[in-house]
Design brief:
Layout lengths: L1 E4 L16 E5 L5 E5 H6 L4 E10 L2 E7 L10 E2 L2 E3 L7 H13 L6 E12 L2 E13 L14 E8 H10 L6 H9 L1 H10 L1
Parallel strand pairs: 4-9
Antiparallel strand pairs: 1-10, 2-3, 4-5, 4-7, 5-6, 5-10, 8-9
């Protein structure tokens, strides 16, 4: 595991700074309406999300979510995950959040949409996720994770990730466990292409 460490931050117990940010809720027919991000997670409202997977020489760049995150703090997940702001294009959101969370940009390619539900403590995931991947060439960009978002980062092979999830599933965000269990074949194909 190649790691890039950040010092953990204190949670402070404050209301999340982006709790009221408007994201896109989706009804059963896919029609959108605005909703606050925290409300969507508290009430299990179906909503749009993005997940980015960046590969380098067969390894996936993981992030350990900041201790200050209101949702799934300290857990490991794929390169970055977020929600498009109300009215924001999913591709623009994926590029923006990769830059904001991990501190670099690269071309991203969509590779499908998945929907899942999971309970995480007192919050609920009911996500319609647009997935994107990118490939880093050479040694790749210098990672400069935002410590408010990311406390650590690591490059890992999918086989090492799968073994660690088997042994210690509680270290990983529930959506990432779902991706690794239900979508491993497409992730392997993307890793092999890197």
């Amino acid at each position: 595991m190649n790691r890039i460490s950040q010092s953990p931050a204190s949670t402070g117990g404050a209301r999340p700074r982006d709790a009221d940010e408007l994201i896109e809720a989706l009804d059963a027919t896919g029609s959108p309406r605005p909703i606050g991000k925290l409300e969507a997670h508290e009430r299990s409202i179906r909503h749009r999300a993005i997940s980015v997977f960046v590969f380098r020489r067969g390894e996936l760049l993981l992030q350990q979510r900041s201790a200050t995150k209101y949702h799934s703090p300290n857990l490991w997940a794929n390169t970055c995950c977020s929600h498009p702001r109300w009215g924001e294009d999913v591709e623009a959101c994926a590029a923006r959040r990769l830059r904001e969370e991990m501190g670099f940009s690269l071309p991203l390619t969509p590779f499908g949409i998945v929907e899942y539900q999971a309970q995480v403590g007192h919050l609920y995931e009911h996500e319609v996720v647009h997935r994107f991947h990118g490939i880093v060439t050479g040694s790749g960009p210098d990672l400069m994770p935002d410590p408010d978002e990311v406390q650590d980062a690591a490059w890992m092979s999918l086989s090492d990730i799968a073994a660690d999830i088997r042994d210690r599933p509680g270290r990983y965000a529930p959506w990432f466990v779902i991706y690794m269990r239900e979508h491993i074949d497409v992730l392997r194909m993307l890793a092999h292409a890197s």
